[in-house]
Amino acid sequence: MPPSRARATTALTLLLLATTACTTAEHEPRPAPHSPPVYGQAEQLRLPLDAYASTVAETHLVEDAQDILIRRCMNDRGMEWKTLPRVDPRDTQPPNLRRYGADEASAVRYGYHPRPDPPSVARRNRAWDERDALPAEIQQAAYGRSGTGGCLKTAQHQLVGDTAPPDYDAFNQLTGTALETARHAPEVRDALRTWHTCMAKAGFDYPDPFAAAGSERWETAEPTAAERATAREDVACQKSAKLVTVWAAAETRTQRRLIQQNADRLHEAKARKDRWLAAARRVLNHGGG
Fold first, then answer.
1. Gap between the Cα atoms of 109 and 224, Å rounded
2. pLDDT attached to residue 41
3. I want to staple 206 with a disulfide (CB 3.0 to 4.6 A). Which of 23, 134, 211, 273 is the partner?
4. CA 84, CA 128: separation in Å to the nearest integer?
C-alpha cells in the first residue's frame, strides 16, 4: 500500500487538540515580525512555527519527484507505473485556516464541513485510490512488504542518499503545545468567555469553538441548515470577541519562545526538509513528469 498521501496521512499535517484546523498550504509572504494578525483574514494568518513546517504543496513536490524515480525503477523491472497527476498550488488551503475554529468563508455554504476538493486535488485523490487497488505484486515491487521498501526505497536513496526524512514530530509537538498554552492565556480565556456569552444569547451552548465544530450533530453526508446556522453564529461571535486576533497574538508570543528553546532541533529539522525539497526540485527540473 502507498506509504503516504497528502490528503489524509501526510506527516506534514498538524496534529491539533480536537480541532478541525488545517495546517498546510503554499508559502505566502509573511507579515512583518511585529505586526499583529488581522481578523477577517484567516487565510493570511501566519505563525512563527510555520517557517519550520512543510506545506501541502511541498509534500506534493517531494511525492512527484519520488514518483518519477519510482517509475524508472518499476520500468527497469518491466512494470508500468502511472505517476500521480499534479496539483495546482492554488488549490491547497492556507496553513492556519481553521486553527481557532470555524472558517468564516466556508460557514455560510458548508457549515463545519470541509470545502469540496478542487478539481486537481480530486484527480490526485482518485489516483491514490487507484494505487490502493493495484495488484499485490505491483504494490510490493513499488513499496516492498513494509510499505517503505521496493522502488520507493530506491527512489528515496537516489533523491537524498542517507539523509533522514524531516523531523515533523518537532513541529507537530511544538505547535500543539503552543496552541494549548496560548489557549490558557488570560486574554484568550476572556475572549473565549465573550464568545461563549455571544453564542448563549443566540441559543447555542458550546464551551468553545472546537466543541461547536466537533459536535456529533454535524456527522452528516452534507451540511444541514442547522449546522450552517450554528457556524454562521459561531464566526459572528468570534468576530465580536476578536477571538482570532487575540488568540493568534498570544500564540505568536508562545511560539517565539518555543523556537528559542528548541532552536537546535528546529534548525536540524528545517535543514533536512530543505535538502529533500532541493533534491526534489532537481529531479522535477531535469526528470520530466
1. 10
2. 45
3. 211
4. 8
The DSSP line for 208-263 is SHHHHHT-GGG-SSS--HHHHHHHHHHHHHHHHHTHHHHHHHHHHHHHHHHHHHTH
Question: Count of residues for the chain?
Answer: 289
Q: How many CB atoms lie within 10 A of CB 271?
A: 12
Task: Report residue 135 as a C-alpha cell.
Answer: 495488484
Residue 37 has pLDDT above 70, yes or no: no
The residue among 11, 144, 142, 153 whose CA lies nearest residue 83 is 142
For position 170, what pLDDT does the model report? 84
Residues 231-285: tens digit of each pLDDT:
999 999 999 999 999 999 999 999 999 999 999 999 999 999 999 999 999 999 9
Please check whether residue 21 is in contact with residue 240, taking contact to mean a CB–CB distance below 8 angstroms: no
Q: Please state the separation of Cα 36 from the chain's center in Å.
A: 22
Assess contact for 67 and 75: CB atoms under 8 A: no
Distance of alpha carbon 137 from alpha carbon 4, whole angstroms? 19
Give the separation between CA 1 and CA 138, rounded to whole angstroms: 10
The band of 15, judged by pLDDT with boundaries at 50, 70 and 90, is very low
- The grid cell for 5 is 498521501
What are the residue ranges of helices labelled H in the chain? 56-76, 104-110, 119-132, 136-143, 150-160, 168-183, 186-201, 209-213, 225-241, 243-261, 263-287
Chain segment 162-210, per-residue pLDDT in tens: 888 877 888 899 999 999 999 999 999 999 999 999 999 999 999 999 9
Task: Report the alpha-carbon distance of residue 94 to residue 44 in Å, rounded.
Answer: 7
